[in-house]
Design a protein that fits this description.
Layout (H helix, E strand, L loop, with lengths): L1 H22 L9 H7 L5 E5 L4 E3 L12 E5 H4 L5 E2 L5
């Protein structure tokens, strides 16, 4: 009986973990500014460095130039652990 309860508890925890992962799906990244602008015409398009989870605004040095990244809609990044570049570069 204890083994069955342990198994049920483990299955419940796995199901909850899967639901949490599905709820925190990543924001979509696009290869070009045009694709991102088409996806979110009323939002600001930013460049996201996927490795550092930092995003850059147009005009900043690293905008569109980091090795890992893509263009994204700023509002979609909220709640996914991304943060703006704080150095202004």
């Amino acid at each position: 009986m204890a083994r069955l309860l342990s198994l049920l508890l483990m299955l419940t925890l796995l199901a909850m973990a899967g639901a949490a992962l599905a709820a925190t799906a990543e924001a979509p990244l696009f290869a070009s500014e045009a694709e991102a602008e088409q996806h979110c015409p009323t939002d600001l398009v930013v460049w996201v460095d996927a490795a550092t989870r930092i995003y850059y605004y147009r005009g900043q040095n690293l905008y569109g130039s980091t090795k890992t990244g893509g263009f994204a809609c700023r509002k979609e990044l909220i709640g996914h652990g991304y943060r703006p570049n704080r150095t202004g570069r």
